[in-house]
């Protein structure tokens, strides 16, 4: 993952970037410890989440 300088970024752009990252982190990031599923897929397979 690349780093970004946030010194000239407004709060609106920061929140948008953070939202995109959290979406990727929870819905697309594959974890070996979760059976090679994303956190959302894993929770759905357990019936914890719709």
Automatic annotation (TrEMBL):
InterPro entries listed in its UniProt record: Integrase_cat-core (IPR001584)
Highest taxon listed in the record's lineage: Bacteria
Domain Integrase catalytic: 16-44
Pfam families: rve_2 (PF13333)
Single Gene Ontology BP annotation: DNA integration
Protein name (Swiss-Prot/TrEMBL): Integrase catalytic domain-containing protein
């Amino acid at each position: 993952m690349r780093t970004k300088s946030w010194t000239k970024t407004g709060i609106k752009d920061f929140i948008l970037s953070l939202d995109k990252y959290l979406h990727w982190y929870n819905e697309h990031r594959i974890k070996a410890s979760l059976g090679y599923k994303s956190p959302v897929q894993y929770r759905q397979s357990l019936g914890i989440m719709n």
